[in-house]
Amino acid sequence: MKRRDLLQTLGALPLALSLPAARAQAPATSSGQTFPDRPVRVVVPFAAGNTLDTALRQVAEEFKKNTGQPLLVDNKPGGSGIIAAQNVMAAPPDGYTLLLANTSMFTINPHTFSKLPYDPEKTFRPVTNFLGASMVMAVNASVPANNIKEFVAWAKANPGKVSFASFTAGNSSHFAGVILNQRAGIDMVHVPFNGTPPAVTNLVGGQVHAAFLPLLAVKPHMESGKVKVLAVTSPQRSPLMPSVATFREQGYPDLDIYIWAALACACRHAGCRNRQAQYGIREDTEIAGDARQVAPAGFRDPAVHTRGIQQVRPGRFAPMGGGGEDFGVQGIGVNDVVSAHCSPTLYRQLQNPSMNKQSFKLRLPVFVAPMFLISGPELVLAACKAGIIGAFPTPNARPIETLDVWMKQITEGLARARDEQPEATIGPWCANLVTHSSNTRLPEDLALIAKYKPPIVVTALGSPKPVIEVVHGYGGLVFADVISITLAKKAVAAGADGLACVSAGAGGHTGSLSPFAFVSAVREFFDGHVIVGGGISDGWGVAGAIASGADYVYMGTRFIPVAESLAQQEYKQMLVDSTVDDLVVSAGITGTAASWLKPSLRANGMDPDNMPDAPQREYDSSQSIATKRWKDVWAAGQGVGAIKAMEPLADVVDRLAQEYAQATARIASLPYAAASAGPVKALRRIA
Q: Whole-model pTM?
């Protein structure tokens, strides 16, 4: 790696920390010694070998030569930089521990995480800009495209089959692919990696088709012919790749994306206010080496984040934040590019490939709820092929070998469906895991989750925490079934990406809150995915739930009588014959409140008006179902009255879609429709 290339490609690498002048100008500390008088540690939020890590290590060599003190590089990757930030926050606030902060940590995270352990404006003080750069879009040499136009045409001919890599989920390299998907109308699948090196390795090896990466990381492989560079994200062409056109030139101005890095310290007291001067940072300090493109003067200008490398005075750099008082994050937003296409509510969709708006398409925002003893692979496949989300509880598959067979059947069946009908809307599948402490089979279930990678995993009857690491490891989403606000807050604190708000009227295990009240209360503290279920059995109810603030609707009872469910014929007929008056809620069967069909209870010798006390809860899916007292007792929700016949699932979805369209049309036709324009538009987007 040539140092000249590093500096020119990444833009400004202010080496003031390494200049002899820095030491000569540095004032004495309170103890009378010149700063620094001991090693300085820089915490890096990336693994070793990352482009920023490599650049910092080059600075470290010069720093030691000119100050006599080591600049120690301490890699703390993971958590979108949060782990590194917390490490610096825990260090003594004396200026001897620095953070190598980046775009994601200071301009994206505050707008996309509901809670952060740090405040960019209040927790940290800027020391100096470190470097800034644009990215390139590179493709494997086998991709039949030499420019963006050809790539878009190829991707449109292969919807859902083209993949793009990023160096981490939820960062600029990820957003770049999402924006190209949106603007070009293509369907690339996002594959996140933990750093630039593995992303490059997989791009060169052909495991992914495309990637948005720093130019320097790609340049050697372009020169060897292993990858092709189709565009750069700066407004002007790179001097290192003058033959490669910009995205702007190729018709995509929204892909002017700038990434930056800066050094900061967690020093807020008065004694640290002069640290910037003590580091020898001066606005007129000459930059060593061959760099001629320099870092922006400060973070306060939104253009810094969106318009590529800015030209300040050649050969010089300026301290950031207008003298170092703050980072100027307030008011900038995620960055101009991302904020135009991503709200905090949608962030978790962008963060996970399965929920990316391009690869996660639905005909209706409906989950076929995971139903015990009802949902199997045929029901899941039918739901996904109908354009909604199919789900099943893993305890339905016993023994564990059966679960392996089911998951293989689902993944292979959906792959065939997408190959045979590339233009069809096929929804993702969902696995439901019981995380209650009594479920001794959970580790085995999790091993199969890791093997087959369902895009969505919903946890029930326990904390989502045990499954999050596994599911997030492959880019999936974790939702948690909750029946109260207290449980919802616990699930969010545990790291759940979404909540399945099981409300009053739900079949099987049920809640006590109104769906509307539940969603309203949850939206006070959570902007992630929200599913709501409870008595919703038609498209009119789906429209109402979405208008109230939910993202999706759980619908279970409505799908029990479909041809593809595992329900017994007698069970299906009982649903056709029953009304809402034929239900009773009791914890006397499983230990948890659930809604049961009275005729089913009577058939099993129980009195619906005098139900037994709740037994001890026990949900061990390693045991046989044959011994369970509830295997022949049937549940239903308050949507039972909408069931008029046994029919194929596709017919039910067709009817739901018609009802949903009628609901939105009715709202639009009302005299006060103008006041409802926002919600109506949102509903129509999904329909």
A: 0.51
